[in-house]
Amino acid sequence: MTFRIAQISDTHLSAQKPFFVENFKCVGEALTHELPDLVINTGDIALDGSSHEDDLVEARRLHDALRVPYLCIPGNHDVGDNADVPNAHHVLDADGRARYLRHFGRDWWHVDVPAWRLIGVNAQLYAGALAAADEQAAFVAEAVAGARERRIALFIHKPLFDLHEREDVIGGRFLNPSSRRDLLNAFGATRPALVACGHVHQFRETEVKGGRHVWAPSTAYHIPDTRQPRYGRKEVGFVIHDLRDDGTHASRFALAPGTQNLCIADFPAAYGPMH
Ligand SMILES: [Fe+2]
Ligand SMILES: [Fe+2]
After folding, report:
1. How far is the CA of 115 from the centre of ligand 1 (A)?
2. 140 C-alpha vs ligand 1 centroid, how far in Å?
3. Class of domain 2-271
4. CA–CA separation, 153 vs 232, rounded Å?
5. Is 75 helix (H, G, I), strand (E, B) or coil?
6. pLDDT tens profile 29-76
7. Ligand 2 center–CA 145 separation, angstroms
């Protein structure tokens, strides 16, 4: 038996600035052909949910219209960024998190499917001072310990690292070192079999220490090479993860017919012009 997850990410939806809604609808249409058991959005659901609650409202409405079972975790554009990200546009605070919870429900969760435990976390809570950060850490430790013989698929907005766990770069693209340490502590000597993230707007699949790290592309847009290195495939789309009950798994990039491979540089009204 195979449990199929369609991972969508970085949908960047908004009513006031609906630049990426058509692409989202194309992905929604493509999902009806992939027949996933569950859809998971790994964050940056809204264009600017941390400043405009309307964007969260519209993103929720568009997800409900998909008429598929779905779960979400927040990205930096939904709740604000980690407190240790230099020059963050918006840092996660209690109000921003409360707004997200109001419209999308819990920002961390676990779900059991045959042979697997799916764990979703709010990456932006790490390195912050909210009590919720400690609550989430306790939740993750318990969810990992309780998985027993199940394999774990971790869903998180930001990639854990570029190439390896001991990277010491502090920035906004990957989980920063102290956050990564806090998260991985919960896993002890073991590692999740699958780490599925978004945030970079590129598709990439790598194998590190027995765990597969799959970056979902954005359904909305890609970021030009002048602003971001090319780690993988810069093309809008989504990812299909097939989790089998014998513990094996496979992931693949999926293209939604009708989508346009939009570039954020062509939408200065979204986040301002690119210099
Ligand atoms: Fe994003
Ligand atoms: Fe992001």
Report:
1. 31
2. 24
3. alpha beta
4. 21
5. coil
6. 999 999 999 999 999 999 999 999 999 999 999 999 998 999 999 999
7. 29
